[in-house]
Amino acid sequence: xxxxxxxxxxxxxxxxxxxxxxxxxxxxxxxxxxxxxxxxxxxxxxxxxxxxxxxxxxxxxxxxxxxxxxxxxxxxxxxxxxxxxxxxxxxxxxxxxxxxxxxxxxxxxxxxxxxxxxxxxxxxxxxxxxxxxxxxxxxxxxxxxxxxxxxxxxxxxxxxxxxxxxxxxxxxxxxxxxxxxxxxxxxxxxxxxxxxxxxxxxxxxxxxxxxxxxxxxxxxxxxxxxxxxxxxxxxxxxxxxxxxxxxxxxxxxxxxxxxxxxxxxxxxxxxxxxxxxx
Length: 278
Prior knowledge:
Elements: E1 8-11, H1 16-22, H2 32-45, E2 49-55, H3 63-72, E3 77-82, H4 90-112, E4 118-119, H5 120-131, E5 148-149, E6 154-156, E7 175-176, E8 180-181, H6 184-187, H7 198-201, H8 214-221, H9 229-253, H10 268-277
Parallel strand pairs: 1-2, 2-3, 3-4
Antiparallel strand pairs: 5-6, 6-7, 7-8
Helix pairs in contact: 3-4, 4-9, 5-9
């Protein structure tokens, strides 16, 4: 993996009491100790270790704690992703901005103390703010620009949709490696009355929002082209959080985010290593 320059990513939702809520073995055993051990071993063997933390309606309030835990393990490249298939309440949605702001305060503090982290919730949106939105090639290309293959040879438009259908009703499967792909099946999962939510097309944040993510939409609304209210609220909160971080740090430190203009924010762990070398 080192020779081929692979990036290595492990899913870990947080400390043991959070990780073991949803990530257990098929026999119901806890996974937190094994995952933590893997993360520590991976950092000793590999130059680039990423971690993906998924948050749910009853764990998202602990995102600041999760961030502290992952940072404490030495991880500096942290991806936060919500569970779009969960049942998010209005109260949950109303609290998102407060939780994201708490994550931002840690991010700002680390930056000011010369220990920057890459946190996807913030860095990806800062890049978009600087570039004016998503490039067309960055948007979802499910079924055309990307495909996913399941262990049994099934072909899906996205890896997150593998096995997502009910037993005997795998509605997202568009073919197999033995018999080819039928792209017309993609249209069966689109709402027929328009390409996108009308209110999305009129929104000032349209170019900064992941409204185009087909699999996320499918989990929330059942259609690739219909956005659910949770994604709207989460994206709005994330954009406002990123704007707060950007203005705060640029005001205090100057132009620290120029590298985000490339569309691929520089891994902040690289900054830390350079700082240590000096």
